[in-house]
Amino acid sequence: MTENLKLETETLLVIGTDTGVGKTVFSGLFARYLMDAGVGVRAVKPFCSGGMEDVEFLAEAQGGLGQVDLNFWYSDEPISPAAWERRHSQAVDFKGAINWINSLRSAVFRHQEGLGGQLPVGSGQAGVLLVEGVGGLLAPLAKGKTVASLGKAIGAQLIVVAPNRVGVINQVLLTVEAAAQRGLEVACVVLMGQKEPDASVAENADLIRDLMPDMAEFKGVFEFPWLGVGADDSEQIGANVKKAEKVLAKIIDACKLRGPSGCGVSDQPSD
Predict the structure, then answer these.
(1) d(C-alpha 104, C-alpha 60), whole Å
(2) Hey, how many other C-beta atoms are within 10 angstroms of the C-beta on 74?
(3) How far is CA 3 from CA 15, 28, 39, 97, 153, in A?
(4) What sign results for the dihedral spanned by CA atoms 265, 172, 15, 56?
(5) Alpha carbon of 251 to those of 6, 188, 193: distances in Å?
(6) How far is residue 219's CA from residue 264's CA, in Å, rounded to a whole number?
(7) Is 212 exposed, middle or buried (0-12, 13-18, 19+ CB in 10 A)?
(8) How far is it, in rounded angstroms, from Cα 81 to Cα 75?
(9) pLDDT for position 108
(10) Which one, of 149, 182, 132, 151, lies nearest residue 16 by Cα?
(11) Predicted pLDDT at 65
């Protein structure tokens, strides 16, 4: 039964065009919306450094999990895992991280049952494993390994998160091109709204759509609203899901993510 669960779990790797572009906010709100819609989901951040805020946000979005449930490797130093590896002459266990992520494909269902009985163990229904990367696609994780290597190793499609501002077209297209060169599929692009949108915002999404290379699994470009200064406030997760539920529903529908009954979830609102 465990093997069947693994095969039916959708694995999505959330990457950025840079660090600090909104990956964690998107991942946490997306996970909460999926949970509210009845989809078995686990959102994790295998590699984290410089503070536990991202892991804590993801934990709260999923009902208050612990670090062990969401994070494999952590350092207090605000540097990449590969930089930490060099600095301390100690290897980052990249293979161990892959094994840990793969083990969560079935744990998605067990965790959801414990929270609210959304999916019984062994139900065989589709689940979603959201894996948040660090920085951009080529951010180094270990010797010879990048976030792109992580995507390949876990067989994930990519969700590219980028700030909706001038320059984003070049950043997104470079990321997509680098992904394609490495045999990675991009599921969608999410443009995060900015506090003070500049003049480029009106055309950014359309231009990215026009210039995207042909990718069989590409589902579209989605514009995420500006959620205010409390976007990363765990106490505002429910309210922010409400603010973003229209675009979250579009992403779920486009990616054909399914609930426990096998029906689409795009018409199921967040609580």
Answers:
(1) 18
(2) 16
(3) 27, 27, 19, 19, 18
(4) negative
(5) 22, 8, 16
(6) 16
(7) middle
(8) 8
(9) 60
(10) 132
(11) 85
Assigned token pair, 15? 């990457």
pLDDT of residue 256: 81
Q: Rounded to an integer, what distance in angstroms lies between the CA atom of residue 190 and that of residue 222? A: 5
Alpha-carbon span 70 to 263, nearest angstrom = 28
- 152 band by pLDDT with thresholds 50, 70 and 90: very high
Cα distance between residue 247 and residue 252, in whole Å: 9
Angstrom distance (rounded) from CA 213 to CA 200: 21
Q: Tokens representing 57?
A: 């946000």
pTM: 0.87
Query: Exposed (0-12), middle (13-18) or buried (19+): which is 257, by Cβ within 10 Å?
Result: buried
